[in-house]
Amino acid sequence: MWFWLAIVALLCWSGSDLFSKIGSKPDDKHSHLKMVMAVGLVMGLHALYEIVIVGTPITMGDFITYLPVSMLYIISMTIGYIGLRYIELSISSPICNSSGAIAALGCFIFLGQRMSGLQTFAVLLVCIGVVGLGFVEMKEDKELRVKRQSTANVKYTKSFLAILLPILYCIIDAAGTLADSLVLEKLNENTANVAYELTFLFLGIMAFIYVVVIKKEKLTVKRESPKFVAAIFETAGQFAYIFAVGANAIAAAPVISSYCVASVLWSRIFLKEKLSMKHYAMIIICVIGIVILGTFE
């Protein structure tokens, strides 16, 4: 059963990547806030289900205890949503998914945890892949960039911000993982997850007030529906992940951690994104490191 749950998590999270990208229009400066609205609504509904139907216990104290962790995760996701307006999903997803390597490094430096030689090698691979992706992206010839992007009918300008945003996601998400490892010594996982979802709901309401009430921006089903599909996939993936890792962590983690491979595949099939061989080489190096680290999760 764990295998199918892991596959569901992989497909859901890669699907969330795909629809988040579809919903992140370059001309919509509030697309990231609308994503927060969508994810907040869906996660809020799931939190309500957990509290009322399942009976997951949560107090205001639990909510406040987990709030710093929730904020780190949500800030990182929001930055990731902004980044999708400026860069291909094929590049963004592997960089964002490298946060596990940064978290492992953080555990080694700040928490005194030890890594095996293979884990150290995996972290090195991920770092090489991420730095390499940034280098390839910034050094790519302008004419070659325009030629390969013409297939997707989308043009992204070369900018430091485009590569910086997914890297910031990676670092802040890793900080969330570090904080998570400390806070989960006080809270059980289900309570922590509900606290996280309620925080997302609150920020989603704040985003709605800003975008719709203050800025008076009209929302349309056609334009915003991909965001809600992404939100459903994100929440379903989180649900499947918890049970898959709970059933067989050592086997499920490597499967789930490679979801960025599926994200790259979907971006090639559905978004018509096409990268250079140098891009793909760096992505492969990243993914190998991520899967090795996932094995030790």
Automatic annotation (TrEMBL):
One of its GO terms (cellular component) is membrane. Keywords: Membrane, Transmembrane, Transmembrane helix. The chain crosses the membrane at residues 36-56, 63-84, 118-138, 159-179, 194-213, 249-267, 279-296. The keyword Membrane applies. It holds the Pfam family EamA. Coiled coil: none annotated. The keyword Manganese does not apply. Residues 2-133, 162-293 form the EamA domain. InterPro entries: EamA_dom, EmrE-like. Belongs to the EamA transporter family. This is EamA-like transporter family protein.
